[in-house]
Amino acid sequence: MVDTTAGGGEQHGRDGGERSGRDGGGGIRTFPFPVDRSVLGVGMQIAPMGPGRAWRADAPPDRVHRIDFHIVMLFDGGPVRHMIDFTEYEATAGDLLWIRPGQVHRFSRSGEYRGTVLAMQPGFLPRATVEATGLYRYDRPPLLRPGPAQLAALQAGLDQLGREYEDTATLPLSLHIAVLRHCLTAFLLRLAHLSASPAESARGPADTTFTLFRDAVEDGFATNHSVSAYADALGYSRRTLVRAVRAATGETPKAFIDKRVILEAKRLLAHTGLPIGRVGAAVGFPDAANFSKFFLQHTDTTPAAFRAGLR
Q1: Beta carbons within 8 Å of 150's beta carbon, 6+ residues apart
Q2: What mean pLDDT is reported for the chain?
Q3: How far is it, in rounded angstroms, from Cα 298 to Cα 191?
Q4: Which of 4, 96, 213, 296 could serve as 144's disulfide partner, Cβ 3.0–4.6 Å?
Q5: pTM confidence score
Q6: How open is the CA angle 151-152-153, to the nearest 5 degrees?
């Protein structure tokens, strides 16, 4: 059973293992991929959602938290309201919700989660597949509404993936995992096509330069806000990095870094009781005044006013 099949109910990570939820020193609790509950310990899980399939006992479904793996929920009932990074999404039969590692989310007690849930551990798929499927495109919408033909294809892909996941007898483990990866890739390519804008589809998948930059920012945004430092660490010229990021996202590397910093600051301001100075320090601003200035510049409000507006 998938550990996230909610019956009423991140820190971006690349490792698995069963650990208790961690909160980053007073921050938002993060839960790891539940390897011990996966069939044969593979890096994915698939299972039905429905009554009696509870979220873990130490993670109340209506409390905000993060996961360090991917979750895709395909609903065959509803409506269900689910919060992901400050936005309430209402999903019903035929809709999909894609929650990426590190996103802050909260299950709802007001509706029944019915359908199928897929969990994927970072690192289960090769980098080429990660790039082609946009696994870490946090700018894409979590809620997807496929048309009838798209939904039929996605459901068929998910059904096939489920059958292969449960079939542990006909192949040795190495081939079993290889088949799972192929089936999962096919499903995710369809999902990525559905989630991409027409402009993104015309551009094609992001190149390796942007992917490496994005990963480096995800790992280092809390201490490193320098485009030149990222370029040097990755072995690219600043011009090459600017060109790759602009082609992939339409924005500059500096804007990409700043957006990631602001998102994390908002998450901590909204969902923790950390003092504003500690929130600033957590995203790379040891000086509270500099953090407030940066936050105001990018959001047109102060950290204190942003937090107060959510209370």
Answers
A1: 190, 194
A2: 85
A3: 31
A4: 96
A5: 0.80
A6: 90
